[in-house]
Each structure stands twice: as C-alpha cells, then as structure tokens.
Design a protein that fits this description.
Blueprint: E1 7-11, H1 18-29, H2 41-51, E2 58-64, E3 70-81, E4 89-94, E5 109-110, H3 115-126, E6 133-139, H4 148-151, E7 157-172, H5 177-182, H6 186-201, E8 206-211, H7 218-232, H8 248-263, E9 267-274, E10 277-287, E11 290-298, H9 307-322, E12 326-331, H10 335-338, E13 343-355, H11 357-385
Parallel strand pairs: 4-6, 11-12
Antiparallel strand pairs: 1-2, 2-3, 3-4, 3-5, 6-13, 7-12, 7-13, 8-9, 9-10, 10-11
Helix pairs in contact: 2-8, 6-9, 7-8
Protein name: BioF2-like acetyltransferase domain-containing protein
Organism: Kineococcus radiotolerans (strain ATCC BAA-149 / DSM 14245 / SRS30216)
InterPro entries: Acyl_CoA_acyltransferase, BioF2-like_GNAT_dom
C-alpha cells in the first residue's frame, strides 16, 4: 500500500515544542509548485484559537515518513453540521473548511515526493476517527482520492464522493518584470496605463508603497479594515464584495496575525497613497515561492483610477524581484482575475467514511441540505452581480 511505513500521530496544539514548530516551518518552506500560505503554523494555530476553542475537537495530525522525517501536517477539526436545532451529524474537516474565514484555502501540508502516501495515511487515520464522515482537500497536482483508500474494510457502508473543486487563478513568473509585463493581456496593460495616467493628470501627488515588517502595525491593519468595508459598501460596480471582516472573530484573527506574519516576511500591505492619504490597500501573503493576493480595500472615489489593479501589479513586480515562481489570485476565477492569467490551480474536496449505514444516511441528509443551501447562495450571488433593469 502507498502509505506503508508512514506513521500518523495526533498532537496537542497547546503543547507543541520549539523543535516541532521548527520542523513544521521547514516543511512549509519546502513546498513546490503553488505554495499554500495557510498551511503555516501561525495560520493554523490562530485559526484553531479563533474557531475551535474546545481543544478536544482539534485533530492536528503529524505524518512521518519511513525514515522518521516530517512528511505531512494535516490540521483537522470536528464539526457538528445541519440545522442548529436538529444537527445532522459530525464530520472531520480541515481547518478553514466549512466556514467563511480568512483562511481561504484548506489543504494538507506536504511535498510532491510524499503527497500520495501522506494523503493515504491521513485518510486511513480520519476515516475511523469516530465522526460520521470526514472530508479532505487535495491539490490536483499532488494527488487524487483513490478508491482503495476506503475499500480495505469490513465496514457496513464504506464510501467516498467528490464534493467540490476550488479553482485559483495563478500567474506563473518567468524572467524579469519587464518580460512578465510584456506578456500580459492588452486590456490589462491598458487598464494599468490608464490608471496611472488619470492619477497623474489629476494633479495629485501619488505613490504606491509596500509596508513590511514593523511597518505593518495596528494602525495599518485598521486602515485595511476601513478601506475593505468601504469597498464592500460601494454600489457602483457590477460585482458584489461583502465585508469579510464585519464578523468580530475574523477581524480579531487578522488583528493578531497580520503584524506577526509581516515580521516573518510572510505578509505585506501594498497601499496607494494620494496627497498623503491611503485610498486603497491590498493584503499579500508570501510562502514557498508564491505570493498570494488576499483581500483588498478601496475608497470608492478612486474606483476610476484602477487602484486595486495598480496595487496587484506592484505585488506581481515585487514577487518577480523576490524570485517567486507564481502569484496566486485566490479562489474564484472571475473577469478581473482572468485578465492576469487564464491558468488555474485546482484543489478538490472529497468526503469519505468507513462507518455504519446510519452514518451513511446522516451523510446523505447533509449533502441534500448543503445542495439546497449552495443553490440559494448561487442564485443570490448571481442576482446581486446581474445588471439591473
């Protein structure tokens, strides 16, 4: 079997040693291809602190290879699902999964060398962990769920299902900034040129600046929140952008986390400053040769200046200078992102179990409720983004 010799251990998130954290950080830095910033210890542990206060529901799985080296980290948590008054069942899912939070891309941390075996080992551990079922996010360029991972059992109702696909627009980086810029689509280059020209012709003093390290302080984070909320309240565009930080839990998470990430060179804030006032901001994350465009904010008065696009261009330029392999424009391809690239990085979600028929029925009930909720959400989003009569 692919997982032979791989050992899975559940760790206490409150008792991690400096040596273990160092191993985790080292594995995080060895990611190849499209790196995932959310697999870092800071993101995972802060997410647990914010959303899973009950430590008994945290399943931080440590996977060692046959030689004893750390080959994978799978941060999971137990979640009760279904209507609040009549829960359907219990599932085991990755951190960030099943909730709308700033941790946008749940995934098992591993390397290409160990990916298949690590995912097999994690499935073998979680399928029998006592929940009604488990779910896992698997990067398509690393592995795919294999039927054999749930078929070697005498359980009443073994099963696995492909639940969803999460696609991110990614821009591969090769050569200098001038070479990357020269390969961009004409409409994007025109948008960048037009935005700069409009700012210059306005007669205002303007600059794009990148805040790093200690510059990303509490005041900078609060400016980011304020501009993000202003962007969410802007009705003069065809796409809706809800305020992701209206929820105090998610807001507090970033208040604690972003300055610490910046100190570790894992985050930066790129700002457009006009006449001494910050009017737009882009949060960027950095990990393992990848820059990740997280959320942004904008004073609606500067919409016509393509402000966020200018900031994204600065993130790309800095990523080239840093030697990154790729820029990830986050999940959810749309027109604005596809102007940068038409290449996508896909992470697939699978559900699986080797339990009883009763557990299987609870899973089926949940999928029906989830399908209805997803349909209503899709209709609401499409209607909010559709032209008004």
């Amino acid at each position: 079997m692919a997982a032979t010799g791989y050992v899975v251990e559940r760790l206490d998130t409150g008792a991690l040693t400096e040596a273990q954290l160092g191993e985790w950080e080292g594995l995080h830095g060895r990611q190849s291809g499209v790196g995932n910033p959310f697999c870092a210890p800071d993101w995972v542990l802060e997410w647990y602190r914010s959303y899973v206060p009950d430590a008994s529901r945290r399943h931080l799985l440590w996977v060692r290879d046959p030689d004893g080296g750390l080959a994978g980290v799978a941060p999971m948590h137990e979640q009760v699902v279904g209507p609040r008054r009549l829960p359907v069942g219990r599932r085991l899912v990755p951190v960030g999964y099943g909730l709308g939070t700033a941790l946008e891309l749940p995934q098992v941390l591993t390397t290409d060398e160990h990916a298949r075996a690590v995912h097999h080992a994690v499935v073998a551990r979680t399928r029998d962990a006592g929940a009604d079922w488990a779910e896992l996010s698997v990067a398509r360029d690393q592995a795919w769920f294999e039927p054999g991972w749930v078929e070697d059992t005498t359980a009443q109702a073994p099963h696995y299902t492909h639940r969803a696909a999460r696609a991110c627009v990614v821009l591969p980086l090769a050569g200098t900034w001038d070479e990357v810029r020269g390969g961009l689509k004409r409409n994007l280059k025109e948008s960048l040129r037009r935005g700069r020209n409009r700012l210059t012709r306005s007669g205002r003093d303007w600059q794009v600046r990148t805040l790093e390290g200690a510059e990303v302080d509490a005041a900078a984070v609060q400016r980011f929140f304020a501009l993000h909320a202003a962007r969410a309240g802007f009705a003069g565009t065809s796409s809706s952008h809800p305020d992701a930080y209206a929820d105090p839990t998610g807001r507090a998470l970033l208040e604690r986390l972003v300055p610490r990430l910046a100190d570790a060179k894992a985050a930066s804030l790129v700002e457009l400053v006009v006449d001494g006032e910050v009017v737009a901001v882009q949060l960027a994350l950095h990990a393992a040769g990848t820059s990740y465009l997280h959320s942004s904010g904008l004073d609606p008065e500067y919409w016509q200046f393509s402000a966020v696009t200018l900031l994204q261009a600065e993130v790309v330029r800095s990523a080239v200078a840093r030697g990154d392999r790729v820029v990830n424009f986050s999940p959810g391809p749309n027109v604005a992102k596809m102007r940068w690239s038409e290449r996508v990085h896909v992470v697939d979600d699978f559900a699986y179990a080797t339990g009883t028929r009763a557990s299987g029925l609870r899973f089926l009930a949940f999928t029906q409720l989830a399908a209805a909720r997803q349909y209503r959400h899709a209709v609401a989003v499409a209607r909010s983004n559709s032209p008004r009569a």
